[in-house]
Here is the input.
Amino acid sequence: MNPAQHAKAVAAETAAFVATVTAADLSTPVPTCPGWTLADLTRHVGSVHRWFTELLRLRVRQAPTSRDVDLRLPEHPDSLPDWLAQSAAQAAEVFATTDLDAPMWAWGVDQHARFWVRRMLFETLVHRVDAQLALGLSPDVDRALAVDGIDEFLTNLPFASPFAPLTARLRAPDRTIRFSCTDGEDGDGDGDGHGGGDWVVGLRPDGFALVVDPAESRTADAAVRGTAADLLLLLYGRLDRRSDAFHLVGDADLLAHWFDHSAF
Here is the structure.
């Protein structure tokens, strides 16, 4: 996916989120975000939109020292869905007037404005799923979005330790974990990387990172196979790897180590 597609998907995912929570009881607990209600979840997503939008508007070149931004939160929680829609509209205006390929500070590997659009997309998508699960709905995630989201997650996770400190413990003596989609575009479901559905993460004594060419590491020490949508939600901690949705092979302790320390 490209930055223009990411920007379009932000609008679509936010609209789906707003449609989900409009007329819902915003005091409903969100099991996948313990301690939060739908009101908390909506407030969080809108706050992220407005924060990222401000970063893009300023085109910051260094890490900001403050996260102060005028959120313009509504007085009444019932107005939060409309407020979130307004947040997305403001983001769309900035996307349209920003060179998304322009250099810019980002906490991840991609030091360009486009980083923040992609990050906003998957923050919104995962929390849209949270809202739907809280209301007993069955979320649907487009495969292309899921594949892109898995890639975004695994690419940036090595840089997330400032706010996800447990990731600093993802160390091992040259071990590898493969994540493979069973719903590849070629239809063979063999997880061989066709259709953009195969990733290998290498854990070293000094850190971890995606293996640039997964074909160079055909035999991983552990592997997880599932549909792209399920793998995305698994990586974000929304699904349990021990469910029937996944096929696990290899070193169970290595997989436990990964999932115990990769919370985002």
Q: What stands out?
A: The longest strand covers residues 175-181. The beta strands are 175-181, 198-204, 207-210, 222-226, 247-250.
